[in-house]
């Protein structure tokens, strides 16, 4: 995972408490390792269960972190931060932008 992505990601991920309230147990898996595994799943198309142990956290941990960050809208905030960063650098080419929409008929008069 590129270092630049991690720097931007740290700006949008909610802070976490590394201490377990009940004490003991394993140390919480790092966010950077979990993000690398999530990016791998997205880029490779593999399933969560096919994650390689090289990433560190087990697939269940990576999936739970993905689900939590999805509920927290981290991906939408990251997308915006990346666009803002690229725009500030003058690296966005809006001439290659596409807008998509869907139209469906409203059933029963739209009620």
Notes on the structure:
This protein is an all-alpha fold. It has a domain at 1-12 and 30-91. Helices cover 46% and strands 0% of the residues. The chain is built from 4 helices and no strands. It has helices at 3-10, 31-44, 59-71, 74-89. Helix 2 packs across helix 3. It is extended and about 55 Å long. It starts with a helix and ends in a 22-residue tail after the last helix.
Which value, in Å, is the CA radius of gyration? 19 Å
Oligomer: single chain
Count of individual helical segments: 4
Structural class of the secondary structure composition?
mainly alpha
- Unreliable spans are none
Largest sheet entry: none
How many beta-strand runs?
Answer: 0
| Global mean pLDDT | 87
Strand content: under 5%
Task: Give a quick set of tags describing it.
single chain, mainly alpha
Q: What's the layout of helices and strands?
A:
Elements: H1 3-10, H2 31-44, H3 59-71, H4 74-89
Helix pairs in contact: 2-3
